[in-house]
Amino acid sequence: DRIMYEKGGLGFWETKKQFLHQVEMILNEPNQPNLRTVLDDYWEAWQKVANDPTERASREELIQRTRVLAKTFQHTYESLDNLRKNVDNLVDQRINEINHMAAEIASLNLQIIKSEAMGDNPNDLYDRRDLLVERLSRILDIKVERNNKHEVIIYIGLENLVQGGSYHKINGVGNPNNEGFLDVMWDDGRLVKLGAGELAGLVSVRDDDLKTAIQDIDSLAINLIDSTNEIHRDGFGLNLTTNNDFFKQIPITPYANGDYDFSNDGIPDGTAIFKVSGTEKLDINTMIGTDGAINFGPAVPNGQDIIIQYTATDKIKDVIARINQSDAGVVAYINHRGQLSFKAKFPADARYPQFAIRHIEDSGNFLVGISGMLNASGAAGAFDYRNIGDIVKFSVPSFNISYVPEKHPSGWIDIEEKIVINPDSIAAAAAIDTTGDGKPDEINGLGDNRNALKIASLRHEKIMIESQSTFGDFVKSVVGEFGTRSESAKINTDKNMAVVESLVNLRHEISGVNVDEELSKMLMLQHGYNASARLVTTVDRMIETLIRMGA
């Protein structure tokens, strides 16, 4: 039983090791462009445009660099997504394998009882059953009871998998909250508690490691898209066009007011907002001058609300820091226009929609009069994603709001086609707000480069929402994290392998054949046989002699 327990651990870590190595190679392919190198090229291309905003060649180079960047994102996402789907197929295969083995073990229990009742010694059936149980222990974290030599009882946790001639099936059931990937369940709909083993390793790789890797590059992609577009829309191109996105931006909602069908029943039932910015230009060192509390709703469904208190003596930067250190589900920052902005993080709970601001409410005046984000204070003025038409709770123009992006932006990120068709649409020049609505509307001059410089400087800004780091540092941390995970899986595999080998050797020493003793016994038997043979030969000769004498 100890060997079976350790084999479950070995199966778990060997599975993790195999797939984490593949994840590590996908994120940091040594012989192909990877996200780190193409991001560097992208920022350098923007810097070249800033150096000479009227030069056609630098604009063409920026387009090419952006295309390579987008294809690298797409390739990375597709590789991780395909690997995740392959792992899910293996989960299905292991479930079928477990059911077949459980059925055969139950059948062998019955065959052994019948065989022994007839006076036979079914050693071949015992061996086959032991082989299946040992194989099963590598796939699942099982406990085996042998009440008698006729049958084995197999448990997964406290649940009975095999007893006597009966067994319980397990099933793979698609989970709509996990992109349809399979949950491992009993027939009555309860989740199977997997523990260790290959199957647990596959589920862990699929729903922890690969899911996290995809979330990381999705977050990187949407933040790059949004941060670049936010600045690019405020600038002017050489063709005097403005309000143009540089990257394609695909929202999940087709409605102009952000209404969305979160429940997938065909009827909009909420409002899908990714980012919102106030209208007032703020200085982070300014004291707020009033007391209040910002409510971001619960971090998990039906949990406690995340509430950020502020006082009159707090500075704006203090409140921003408190928000970013909380589980509010958003990151707060001052954008390039000096406006307070909230941007949704990837949710910690899968029951929440991805990259969606869930709730914003202020009991005081900070988000209302001071930052110009909400129309009114209190519960009546609160935004909540579960309410249709709740965009009206914001007191901002439409260009200060971004909608939740389509799933997996790392899979669809690309440069806007109008930029490719006409590189003069690249908005390198800054603009002036002549109307006072917070939106720049007049070019500062065709040779102006300040907008391109702002985008190029994003390279050094700590604006990655998941970790308050630069884009480059975020990529390094992701690659480093999965390198660490891969190395940890290798170390644990080696440890478990050593333990299993030690236990197997110990079992052989206890129950195996001692070759020297057996050879000695064989020699003794051989000598006895030879002596008996000589005696028989002597007796035969004596009898033959007596017969001749009688004749």
Q: What is this entry, summarized?
A:
The chain has 551 residues and is of the alpha+beta class.
Order of helices and strands: HHHHEEEEEEHEEEEEHEEEHEEHHEEHHH
| Helix proportion | 40-55%
What structural class results from the helix and strand content?
A: alpha+beta
Strand runs, count: 18
Radius of gyration: 35 Å
Name the shape in a single word.
Answer: elongated
Poorly predicted regions? none
Rounded mean pLDDT is: 89
Trace the largest sheet across and list its strands.
Answer: 1-2-3-4
What is the end-to-end distance?
Answer: 74 Å
Largest sheet: 4 strands, antiparallel
Beta-strand residue fraction: 5-15%
Number of helices: 12
Write the layout of secondary structure elements.
Elements: H1 2-27, H2 35-51, H3 56-117, H4 123-139, E1 142-148, E2 151-156, E3 159-163, E4 166-167, E5 170-174, E6 182-186, H5 198-232, E7 259-260, E8 270-271, E9 273-281, E10 292-298, E11 305-310, H6 316-324, E12 330-334, E13 339-344, E14 359-362, H7 366-370, E15 383-384, E16 401-403, H8 409-412, H9 417-421, E17 431-432, E18 442-443, H10 450-457, H11 471-511, H12 515-550
Antiparallel strand pairs: 1-2, 2-3, 3-4, 5-6, 7-8, 9-13, 9-16, 10-11, 10-14, 12-13, 14-15, 17-18
Helix pairs in contact: 1-3, 1-4, 1-5, 1-11, 2-3, 2-10, 2-11, 3-4, 3-5, 5-10, 5-11
Task: Please name the defining characteristics of this protein.
single chain, 551 residues, alpha+beta, four-stranded antiparallel beta sheet, 12 helices, 18 strands, 15% strand, elongated
